[in-house]
Amino acid sequence: MYTIEQVEELTDYSKNTIYSLTSELDIKPYRNHIKGKPSKGSYDQQALDTLIEYKRLTTLNRVSKKMAISMARAFYEERTQPIT
Predict the structure, then answer these.
(1) Other Cβ atoms closer than 10 A to 7
(2) Does the structure show a pLDDT above 80 at 81?
(3) CA 8, CA 82: separation in Å to the nearest integer?
(4) Burial per residue of 37-62, b for 16 or more beta-carbon CB atoms within 10 angstroms, e otherwise
């Protein structure tokens, strides 16, 4: 699990950008997992990977933001589905 500060450092995105992107990508932080900071959320590896994938899509592949959101959302959903 990663705090917002760690995600900031690993992705080079600001907190506001992370909040905005996670909202658009339907990624929810886990709340109440940081002792002593009940409202502070943390992000799992899939959320971090999705943000990095979004960044890769927009910077390296130069796809539009709308397309990158769609592709990153599919990437996240694929990774978070249970294996049957």
Answers:
(1) 20
(2) no
(3) 28
(4) eeebbbbbeebbebbbbbbebbeeee
Residues in the chain: 84
Tokens of 35: 């002792």
Phi, psi of 64 (to 5 degrees): -65, 160
Position of tokens 């990663």? 2
pLDDT digits (tens, 9 = 90+) for 38-58: 556 789 899 999 999 999 888
The residues that bridge with 2 in the sheet, in sequence order, are 43
DSSP 50: H
Can you tell me the distance from the alpha carbon of 56 to that of 60, in angstroms, rounded to the nearest whole number? 5
Residue with tokens 């990977």: 49
